[in-house]
Amino acid sequence: MTSPILLLPGIGNSGSGHWQTLWTQTDASMTLISGQNWDHPVCEEWVENLETAVRKNGPDVILVAHSLGCLQVANWAQYSRTVVRGALLVAVPDPTRNVFPEEAKGFSVPLSEKCFAFPSIMIASSNDPYADIHYSQLCADAWGSSLVNIGERGHINAASGLGDWPQGRAWLKELFAISMSASGWLC
Length: 187
Fold this sequence. Notes:
The protein is α/β, with parallel strands linked by helices. It has helices spanning 19-26, 43-57, 68-79, 133-143, 166-180, and strands at residues 5-8, 30-32, 62-66, 86-90, 120-124, 146-149. It has one domain: Alpha/Beta hydrolase fold, catalytic domain (Rossmann fold), CATH 3.40.50. Helix 4 links the parallel strand 5 and strand 6. The radius of gyration is 15 Å and the shape is globular.
């Protein structure tokens, strides 16, 4: 791949054993978004920060979001006219669930008629404590994302035991291939 890749972690950032952290350590084209308060997220601030980062990286950037980072992308995509190549969305959380972090309550899920203006693949787990598979399908349908159910892998984080997560890298390559053939993307 020749596109820059911007990684968007969830609340608390990605720890040392998280696949996002491992990816940044082994691939120079991948960078972790900076400038966000990881422990006290404010949706509007995270969305503005993403807009700045996307403009800095240019229209070929691919977004790779995990958990709350997915809601950051979804909220950003509803208002931004800035172009990205695509997004890989991993473990989209449901903010209406009781386990959703109290400090992230400002994040909503835009499920409007407006799908993303770029191709996206959503990866979901059938036993994610933060969202059930029905909810994941609802988001995928609303956003025009392809949904991949990877079975019982929890929240698809370090606790899931994925390590470097080669299958995630394969989906990222698939997204890149789709984005290369998706000029003027319309879902």
